[in-house]
Fold this sequence. Notes:
about 270 residues, alpha/beta, Rossmann fold, Maf protein, 2 domains, 5-stranded parallel β-sheet, 5-stranded mixed β-sheet, 8 helices, about 25% strand
Amino acid sequence: MPRYRRAVLGGTFDQFHVGHAALLARAFYVGRDVSIGLTTAEFLREHPKPYPRRIQPYSVRRRSLVRWIRAHYPGRAFRVVPLANPFGRSTEPGFDVLVVSADTRAGGRAVNAERRRLGRPQLPIDVVPVVLADDLEPVSSRRIRAGEIDRRGHRTARSIVAYGVTEDADERAVRGAIRTAFPRAALRSIPWAGSRRASGNAAWIREFGRRAIAGADLAVVVARRPQGGWLALERSRSLELGPRPIARGSRAQLQGALRTLLRPGRAARTDR
Length: 272
């Protein structure tokens, strides 16, 4: 059961994407009743965002938002209200939790500061991790408007993916997983320079990833663990994920597990 009676959140919800879905899913998980402030055209004129002419009208954004909620949470209580100022209804009495994304923590703190000023109790803030595109950069409406990614988090431009394995026998499975996750990417194999004994060492794997990312958009490293199974590391030029364990099994299972790790739309706790 949800922990709180009434949850509140706000946003523009332009080009409704997987990050918006994660934010709303968390709000409906923690609150029985969800109130959503949706920024108005007037608000956006006073607080401009990049590529403003590509931002969808209020009616389109509201329709997409409501359609998603009704499809995923039929019968649940919710309301979508116009958000004409930075706080909307979040400073009003009657709410029990404030849901924010990891990149809008400051806005959540500002809401509580305003509630204090008004003599109202502060709200617990539930922070939703960022959702990453397949290039390990956050999925955002700005990036979609710029044409960098689509709404599912797939990069639109062709990327270079460098990969390395510590066991040659694993290369086919790893390459197959990467090819499925990035069908348009140019793949580049990087030879492993460590010893067999070092293949399960996280520090060596991270160094391998740092070497592999040079001249690439993304690097994927898969190392065999001495005790069985694998460690997988994924990194861009600005973010590293892993090494993450993959349980022992067949190479087909390795390929399936790696495909899941590489999918866009995954959440990551990061303070970048």
